[in-house]
Write a structure and sequence with these properties.
The protein is α/β, with parallel strands linked by helices. Helices cover 47% and strands 15% of the residues. It contains 19 helices and 16 strands. A 6-stranded parallel β-sheet has the order 3-2-1-12-13-7, sandwiched between helices. A 4-stranded antiparallel β-sheet has the order 5-4-6-8. Strands 9-11-10 form a 3-stranded antiparallel β-sheet. Helix 1 (25-43) links the parallel strand 1 (10-18) and strand 2 (48-55). Helix 5 runs antiparallel to helix 6, helix 15 (386-407) runs antiparallel to helix 16 and helix 16 (411-432) runs antiparallel to helix 18. It starts with 9 loop residues before the first strand and ends in a 38-residue tail after the last helix. The chain binds one RNA strand of 76 nucleotides through strand 1, strand 5, helix 6, strand 8 and helix 10.
Amino acid sequence: MQKEDEMPKFYVTTPIYYVNQPPHLGTAYPTIAADVIARYHRLFGQDVFFLTGTDEHGAKVAQSAESVGKSPKQFCDEIADQFKKAWGALNISNDHFIRTTDSEHERAVKWALQRLYDGEYVYRHKYEGLYCVGCEQYIPKSSLVQGKCPLHRKEPELLTEECYFFKLSQFQDELLTRISKRELKIEPVQRENEVLSFLRGEKLQDLAISRSKSKVRWGIELPFDRSHTTYVWVDAFLNYLTGIGWLWDGEKFERYWPADVHLIGKDILRVHATIWPSLLLALGVELPRKIFVHGFFTVNGQKMSKSLGNVIDPVFLAGKYGVDALRYFILGAFPFGQDGDFSLQRLEHRYNADLANDLGNLASRLLAMVEKYRGGIIPTSGKEMEIDLNLRRLAERAFLEADKCFREFAFSEALARIWEFIRGINKYIDEVAPWSLAKKEEQRERLDMVLYTALEGLRIVALLIRPFMPSTSKELWNQLSIEEKLETQRFPRALEWGLLKPGIEVKRGKPLFPRIK
RNA sequence: GGCGGUGUAGCUCAGUGGUUAGAGCACACGGCUCAUACCCGUGGAGUCGCAGGUUCGAAUCCUGCCACCGCUACCA
């Protein structure tokens, strides 16, 4: 067993969310996943850094701010605050919340731009694009509808202006090598294939990274040409570096970089697999180890969108069903790397079946029996019979298998393993039938043993679910009246069988998950 | 058009060559009575999208077709 200070560090990120939209289910998804990952690694005593934040520059933000009569900064402050509050409500344990308008970030971005410029990775060139006067920005061909801007129903004009370009094209071979050698891992593997086939089949074009200030005022100035602001890429991607102190806290940066995993949505895979590593190569910074691509949600079979009015508010759901129920459902009901269809009906089904019936009722029935048969006092364990041993083995297997799934980010699988164990305890109780033992005085010791065994199983459950459901974990821990602080429990040691102390009075509480009618 | 993905029980999904294809939920029946009308057991149920092919043997490999979806970059 390694000592804590010898454990490897772990750095996990979410995308930074564009402030044009308040938090919703789509942004909560990778955030909850990252939180679970962070909590899991902390359980092993690892030094974890978990970063999330907001992306705040750009013409769209400036426009949105103006439309509600606010300054861009003020507007961003408010939305960033909404994100922070939302993540607080979802029990997100991020170590830092980065905003691209943070002064440390802006300074670092300028420094990076200058360095790219000095290193001749950036040059001035003509940019030709379709400009929509209504949007006051260039719009990509892909978003045109019959050649017109979908928002303003107007054909955009073809404009040419001088911009600064990043020499993305020169990194093509290097990217191909790094990704195919898996120095930069992209998972699930289908996503890696997508990227590789793209890199093999198409030529990377150099990338425009600035706009004239007249077009995008709300942005970071180029240090070598103050009439331009940098456009999206350099600004946004560098958050992964500046969020852990790059150029302002060298010690911290050295400690945590490279990122162990960037969680991203499939919509931003391509840019993360091309622009981002190229920028790092140009800056001479090590590449992240892994990019993991999660799926998207539809809602009742439909795409989630503002115009359909089916945007799901995770904070509302957490309020209605409980944070842990939401976290359990989001990660338990959908394979993380695939798309999934969200519905309240499914949420309520899983809630009743898994949380209320399996887990909640288990705690309830078990603690009730301890109260009824042993005055609430945790009994001593006794002679172990085969059936007891089997439950113990089931616990060991549940952890080993869940751990394996976990390290592949197969959260729904990991939870399924844990739930197999929970069902195993229910089954154990049925088979040993403590209510029958209680009727016979000569079975006194056997009843002690049986209750102890089941309680010990419940203690293990409390630990196993901890990264996914921190509040429930804590509540179970309290109901079992365990003296040691939950926060000090470390995997895998705390999972050893038999650590539950006898002689202590349990505190049965209200049902953990009241059934939904 | 190109590249890629998906299509397995009513639902959500496992299952990448080998005994009668699996899980959870839902449904039916039985058991129990400690518990949140809960838990435990048993069961029905599937031409594994369609058609060919390779093989002693295919949901699993190959070809074609059908349906749905994603990407085809410089809006995140």
